[in-house]
Amino acid sequence: MTTKDMHEARERFLTEHDLDRTVRESISTSWRRSELLKVRADRLDPPFVREPNLDSPLVSAAAPVLQQLADGLADEPVSVILTSADGVVLTRISASNRLNRALDDVQLAPGYSYSEEFAGTNGIGTTLETRKPTLVTGPEHYADCLEQLACAGVPIIHPISGTLVGALDLTGWVEDGGPLLATLAKSATNQIEGRLLEQSSAAQTALLNAYLRVCRRLPQAGVLALGDDVVLMNRRLRRALDTQDQAALLEYAVDSTHLTAAHSLVTVLPSGQTVRLSCTDDFPSGTRGAAALFHVHLLDTSAVPSSPVRRNAVALPGIVGTSSSWRRSCEQIARCVRERQWVVVSGEQGTGRCATLKAAAEQYDPHSQPRIFTTKDFRNRSAALAALEHELDQEHFSIIIRDLDLLTEPQLTAIAELLQGREHAGWVGATIGSNTDHDTTVGALILPLFGQTVSVPALRHRIEDLHDLVPLLLRQLSRGDELSLSPPAMRQLCKYNWPGNVEQLRQILHEVVQRQRSGIVAVDQLPPACRALSRHTLTQIEALERDAIVRSLEENHRNKKAAATALGISRATIYRKINEFGIDL
């Protein structure tokens, strides 16, 4: 099939859903997946997911192979790309400035995800989806802006566990062809998998030996070892904890692998059992890598009178949620406040950072209400600083400063000067955005004054907590009236990605309460915003378009032709807009 024929076949599929049988099966199947995922073909907007972990075993194994491959292609306009198993670009090497600029334009860069969910059919995402080598050239890509490229992706399979750990992709210009890229990518992948095998053998042997040494030395202690696809738990621990507690302990331990031997953490498991994890550096020099070895101490709390155990072990007033990530954040914040340790809570706007700090302060110091300073207070800089200084002069002060990362450098400098040297005179909590690591002013002036930084998850990462949050917010907003959501309405809320987090949820439910004070809320009574599952943040004009289409569909009993006529647009346009905005009625 010629490039022109492929382009025409793709256009027919996008406009008429007519799939040409001459299109390769791997490509046509991927197009169907992309359509079902509501990926936009006319605009590519992959999300920035996270900063790449360049110390991971995959990057370590791949680095020399990638560099050797890039050196061999130094005179060719080809980019060597390594990704994680979820499609996040880890490294990208190319000597071609023109190609690098083109890849930057489509966010094919470190930290961005090129999974099919976000980018549609492409050499990376389709390879990861199928776990098979995939060559995607020109108009075989689902997104228009990738038509100039040829991408050859090969999955990287861990040679011991058999799990998918990432992908190697070679990307160049479409006119230069792709078969040679596919051959080179397969050869390089074989080398990477060989190096992973060597690394794993040495690391797993070191981990096993360290685990056995600790078990022999401490036969009555709980011992837990974690490595790349390896979990070792001694008999003492297996007998003491049920299956649910073991799963929670593993999740907590995975998040604690960064600890050094000088640190320990205390957590409450779902059954109510309290444990302390202490990390030990019982490894030969240079062999630890990503492995971790823990002593797990089962703490006896039987001497302390307690109420029946609740799954949400940290009972902060007005704070709900049972997801493990949220409970862990609450536990860490509560511990800091209880121990009067200055703490910064990081996260997206509207996640409940300040509310959790305030609740913890009220729980553990009920006789002293925390004084909260906001960015609005600091608009009058002199008055706010005078008020802050007055609070700091009080005995056993309790202060929360919101959104430090939104303050100016002069404001931060003045605040830092006031806080300096008062660490033991009272307690201060603060909130910052989730991307403040790049803010040198906050990092240099403020964060060194705080002993801990705790991150709270976005609502989309703990979507199961909607079942706790929605009833609570409805009771608050309806002032106790009997109002609830129907199961389909709750399922619809669970589909939404909540870019504005809990604050946006409160606003949505406020709109619901304005229309209905009691009874059961059906799906069609939810505001338009949470009935459209768009994959990108809408502009103000797009949001107005979406709301108008939803209202017209409701007024015309979901008849798309009648709704289009009422809006003065064609039926083809309303179908395209419904798909574009993810409207689900």
Question: Would you write up a description of this structure?
Answer:
- This protein has 585 residues and is of the alpha/beta class.
- The protein folds into four domains: 3-198, Beta-Lactamase (2-Layer Sandwich); 218-299, 2-Layer Sandwich (Beta-Lactamase), CATH 3.30.450; 324-457, 3-Layer(aba) Sandwich (Rossmann fold), CATH 3.40.50.300; 532-585, Arc Repressor Mutant, subunit A.
- The protein is 42% helix and 16% strand.
- It contains 20 helices and 17 strands.
- The strands form four sheets. It has a five-stranded antiparallel β-sheet. It has a five-stranded antiparallel β-sheet with strand order 7-6-10-9-8, sandwiched between helices. Strands 12-13-14-11-15 form a five-stranded parallel β-sheet, sandwiched between helices.
- Helix 12 (381-392) links the parallel strand 12 (371-373) and strand 13.
List keywords for this structure.
585 residues, alpha/beta, Beta-Lactamase, Rossmann fold, 4 domains, 5-stranded antiparallel β-sheet, 42% helix, globular
Protein topology:
Layout: H1 3-16, H2 25-36, H3 57-72, E1 78-84, E2 89-93, H4 97-105, H5 116-119, H6 125-130, E3 134-137, E4 149-157, E5 164-173, H7 179-217, E6 222-227, E7 230-233, H8 235-240, H9 243-254, E8 264-268, E9 274-280, E10 292-299, H10 324-338, E11 343-346, H11 353-364, E12 371-373, H12 381-392, E13 397-401, H13 409-419, E14 426-432, H14 440-445, E15 452-455, H15 466-477, E16 483-485, H16 487-495, H17 501-515, E17 519-521, H18 540-555, H19 560-567, H20 571-581
Helix pairs in contact: 3-7, 10-11, 12-13, 15-17, 18-19, 19-20
